[in-house]
Amino acid sequence: MTASDVPARGQRLPRPARRKQLLGAAQEIFVAQGYHAAAMDDIAERAGVSKPVLYQHFPGKLELYMALLDEHATSLVRRVRTALESTSDNRARVAASVAAYFDFVAGNGEGFRLVFESDLRNDPAVRERVERMTADCIAAITETIAHDTGYRAEEAQLLSVGLTGMAEIGARWWLSSEDRLAKERAVELLVGLAWRGISGAPLHPEGSVEVSADG
Asked: Is domain 11-59 classified as CATH 1.10.10.60?
């Protein structure tokens, strides 16, 4: 939700719509100011509501932040799982998984900063949620690699860590670079790098491996 979407002060909204409105306002404030500098007054003003209305939905700033963090962390995990399930062609899987990270950082009002660049990462609850998100993404990719190759579980997991790290850091660097490549070209380059390595994996005889013609 952007500034033009904020309803007039005092306008009644259904509870789900109000919650979405408040989360949108909070995200803009957190991204712009960081968690520590953000104030509930600023969020209420940005949403066009009174502080009592804000507190009816969220008892404090941390709860508001955690709601946003959960929303974005769940979104990234869902994107990665959807990418892996979208095809049985493994090169296409790699491409879809890398693209999932690029789409995540490029969309939704820079919400990725709440996940990857938070000034609250030392808070145990925040750190646990981010680590769980990362572990869920790694586990999903590990399962696919282990199923389709002859690698042991710990070997597949290490490869998954490498792939997710490359996708995340590459996507974040791409977004912040001054001479930014087209997103499609950036994804293509990283996929080529990853596929030249992973395509050499020993194939599992019972795995559902399909290799694209250009692999």
From this structure: yes
CA distances from 76 to 49, 181, 197 (A): 30, 22, 24
C-alpha–C-alpha distance, residues 130 and 178, integer Å: 28
Which residues, 6 or more positions from 114, have their beta carbon under 8 angstroms from its beta carbon? 27, 30, 31, 65, 68, 69, 72
Q: How far apart are the first and last CA of the chain?
A: 42
- pLDDT (0 to 100) of residue 200: 66
Distance, C-alpha 73 to centroid of its chain? 5
pLDDT recorded at residue 129: 95
Q: Decide: 195 and 215 in contact? Cβ < 8 Å.
A: yes
pLDDT at 202 over 50: yes
From the candidate CATH numbers 1.10.3720.10, 3.40.50.880, 1.10.357.10, 3.40.309.10, the one assigned to the domain spanning 68-198: 1.10.357.10
Q: How many CA atoms lie within 13 A of 59 on its CB side?
A: 0
